[in-house]
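Input structure tokens:
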């Protein structure tokens, strides 16, 4: 009976680790390897990037840029369309890289307010869904290569060793 209880405990720990990884947020690096820059392809560059990603409450946007060269300002749609930072939502982020946690569902708009960067296409519009189950992805999910995924894999790989000591 004692071995059975130990097995159930080990199984419970494995399930908890698995569920934590399944519920973890996704970190989206805006612009992928290009980062947050004035795009050569204009505004369509970031729109294409956004169209190829699925955003859910709790996810994190990472804007990679050099401090002093760019900034990130969340703005309402009207300010996004006219490239003005006169009505910011929150503070302007001037130090890069910048991480923004998506805390609510709906449309979110971000611009760079440095010079004419926004007019040249350095702006991002995304739609955030309310929960991971709200909309099924149209393409299969890629394996998580984030540090939390690696850590979870490490913990799961230790389970047979722990089980060997218990049994």
């Amino acid at each position: 009976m004692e071995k059975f209880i130990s097995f159930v405990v080990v199984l419970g720990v494995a399930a908890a680790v698995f569920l934590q990884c399944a519920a973890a947020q996704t970190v989206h690096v805006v612009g992928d390897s290009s980062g947050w820059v004035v795009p050569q392809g204009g505004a369509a560059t970031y729109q294409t990037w956004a169209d190829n990603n699925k955003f859910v409450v709790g996810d994190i946007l990472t804007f990679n840029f050099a401090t002093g060269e760019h900034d990130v300002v969340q703005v309402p749609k009207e300010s996004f369309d006219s490239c003005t930072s006169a009505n910011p939502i929150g503070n302007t982020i001037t130090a890069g890289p910048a991480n923004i946690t998506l805390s609510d569902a709906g449309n979110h708009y971000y611009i760079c307010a440095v010079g004419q960067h926004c007019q040249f296409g350095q702006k991002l519009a995304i739609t955030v869904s309310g929960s991971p189950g709200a909309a099924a992805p149209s393409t299969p999910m890629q394996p998580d290569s984030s540090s939390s995924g690696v850590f979870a894999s490490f913990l799961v790989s230790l389970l047979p060793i722990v089980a060997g000591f218990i049994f």
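DSSP finds four helices and seven strands in the chain. The chain has one domain: 2-131+147-166.
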